[in-house]
Amino acid sequence: MANAFFSDLLSTISERGRVLLGRASPANDKQDASELLELCEALLSGRGEASGTAMAREVLDRYHHLDAAGRLSFFQTLARDFGPDHAKLAQAIESWSAKTNGDDASDLHFASEPRRQELIRRLNRAPGGTGELVSIRSDLLSLMKGNKDLAALDRDVVHLLSSWFNRGFLVLRRIDWSSPANILEKIIRYEAVHEIRDWDDLRRRIDPIDRRCYAFFHPALADEPLIFVEVALTEAIPGAIAPLLAEEREPVPVEKARTAVFYSISNTQRGLGGISFGSFLIKQVVEELRRELPKLDNFVTLSPVPGFMQWVKQADDVPLTDEDRQLLESLGKPDWPENAELATELRAVLEPLAAYYFLKARTPKGRLIDSVARFHLGNGARLERINWLGDLSSKGLRESAGIMVNYLYRLDDIEKNHEAYANTGEVIASSTVKKLLKGEGRRLLDMRLG
């Protein structure tokens, strides 16, 4: 109710501001980027709150009527011409050089800020401005490929969105069958790990006694879940996804459940891609579950490995013999998991390779290759187990040869694991996973001796 009241109040201020400015709402015709940029300059020139809010709303409305070429031109001009005020920056540098003190340093800091950052702040004041800016950043991401000149603009947008969407603003809410239909529909639409086919499928995910779903919300996007987590309550740590999603399955009595399995975690807003919501979101879900179900002992994921097969096929540092590569061509056969002998041969190559992928392989910048791994290890999890043929869906076989992994969240170790990964890039892993890597080491030695 408070959010709705505040939104209505802003809308009223905006509409009255339009009257003060003598502007009507823009027509639904094609807009020109140059006219929109002139409006941005006017917004930055400094006006009263009502007229500024109205002008910000008009900028956002007109932006939506730009075609793809117009949006690219708009972004390129913001990147090129809406940087720092050069005259103010030069004066601040001169003052700092003449006498280095705290005031001059502060002046230098503010003078070096690009004008587009203040423009983005003012656009955020419009009714619905935060959500609009997230959507605009999604457009920006689509246009950045092949347009490196937009990188500076994206850094400024990310800088501001990171402040507005930090963990302190996020609210955790449980989603169940009684949640509003518009939110349930978004859970179906945004599910990115295991497709939800229809409303019946959704109900099987959130309604039974051994299922939970939680979502993080931001006050400025009250009906838009930013991240949602689907949880299965089980007796033991699972190694395959199919039994958890089966239509005909026997629910686990809550009193027998000892494990909470995070089997699907989906980000819903593309415009917030690459923006960290903090490193302990899953810990918050764990604490919520423990309050409700104190008998739970294990908190684990059952996670896909979306980058594995791409790395196997394309990376230069994959430890494979020619014979191994020839064997891996068998993965192109759609029924290979049903051939027990072939599956055993492939497992001997792929399981140790998966351990190498997580523990040793890195991008040129030294980062873990797998985005899912980066998320969970950054949240303080331990790489617990590699599960052979955990996902037999076409997507799972294509992306990871069916391999899934368990990441273990142990409350006493979350901060320690997070610090090890954040500070040194160390992947905390179980002895089971490390033994697989040792097996790979022996195989590599055999390759060199052979």
3D architecture notes:
With 450 residues, the chain is an alpha+beta fold. It has 3 domains: 1-165, Malonyl-CoA decarboxylase, oligemerization domain (Butyryl-CoA Dehydrogenase, subunit A, domain 3); 168-303, Aminopeptidase (3-Layer(aba) Sandwich), CATH 3.40.630; 307-448, 3-Layer(aba) Sandwich (Aminopeptidase), CATH 3.40.630.150. The chain has 20 helices and 7 strands. The protein has helices spanning 2-21, 33-44, 49-63, 68-81, 86-98, 102-111, 115-124, 129-144, 151-164, 181-190, 199-206, 242-245, 281-292, 308-314, 322-328, 340-359, 371-378, 394-400, 414-424, 431-449, and strands at 171-174, 211-217, 227-234, 259-267, 298-301, 382-387, 404-408. The strands form 2 sheets. It has a 5-stranded mixed beta sheet, sandwiched between helices. A two-stranded antiparallel ribbon has the order 6-7. α13 (281-292) links the parallel β4 (259-267) and β5. α2 (33-44) packs antiparallel against α3, α2 (33-44) packs parallel to α4 and α8 packs antiparallel against α9. The radius of gyration is 26 Å and the shape is globular. 32% of the residues are buried. The model has no long low-confidence stretch (mean pLDDT 89).
Terminal-residue CA separation: 72 Å
- Element order: H for helix, E for strand: HHHHHHHHHEHHEEHEHEHHHHEHEHH
The first-level CATH class of the largest domain is given as Mainly Alpha
Uncertain regions spanning at least 5 consecutive residues: none
The main pleated sheet reads as: 5 strands, mixed
Q: Which fold name fills CATH's third level, the topology of the largest domain?
A: Butyryl-CoA Dehydrogenase, subunit A, domain 3
Large-scale geometry? globular
Name of the CATH architecture of the largest domain: Up-down Bundle
- Major sheet: arrangement of strands: 1-2-3-4-5
Q: CATH H level of the largest domain: which superfamily?
A: Malonyl-CoA decarboxylase, oligemerization domain
Helix content: 40-55%
